[in-house]
Design brief:
It is a single chain. This protein is an all-alpha fold. It has eight helices and no strands. It is globular, with a radius of gyration of 16 Å.
Length: about 170
């Protein structure tokens, strides 16, 4: 189990680091804060550049924490908030297989890791935190907090749904 959790954390954490650095620095074919900010504005977020930077920080920072297995519930919270916002603002469609399945998979992985813990091969274990910051009573609060933070983000920082999304509903 330890090696499976390590593989999952390294792959998913690395993927989020890549997505975050696309937004923050334009690395890996990304558009940087300005380009990504324009996209965020186009899907209805106020101050798209600020929201792009915030999303990039959550993805890169949360991904790095997850990859290392450090402060795992915080990492999972950051990634879950980002995925809920992405689903609600960009990919949600009327049917499951029409665009949100990858974001849903990442969301489920983040909450599952919050509930199971980072595993034996992690910095949380090395510093003695793993017994105190994992289990069902971490997974549930991460899911609830991510939903509440995302709700506030979507209600306060978003002015309208994306024109394309409104047209397809």
């Amino acid at each position: 189990m330890a090696y499976g959790l390590l593989l999952l954390r390294v792959f998913v954490g690395g993927a989020f680091i890549g997505h975050g650095t696309q937004k923050l620095f334009g690395w890996f074919g990304g558009y940087g804060p300005q380009g990504t900010g324009g996209f965020f504005s186009s899907v209805g977020f106020r101050n798209g550049v600020l929201m792009a930077v915030m999303a990039g920080l959550c993805e890169a920072g949360g991904g790095m924490l997850l990859l290392l297995g450090l402060a795992t519930p915080l990492a999972c919270l950051l990634l879950s908030v980002t995925m809920i916002n992405a689903i609600a603002a960009v990919t949600f469609k009327r049917q499951f297989m029409l665009g949100s399945e990858l974001e849903l998979a990442y969301l489920v992985i983040a909450i599952a890791i919050a509930a199971t813990g980072p595993g034996r091969i992690s910095l949380d274990r090395a510093i003695g935190w793993d017994d105190n910051i994992s289990g069902l009573w971490w997974g549930v609060p991460v899911a609830v907090a991510a939903a509440l933070i995302s709700l506030v983000t979507l209600m306060v920082f978003r002015t309208k749904p994306a024109p394309e999304a409104a047209a397809t509903v």
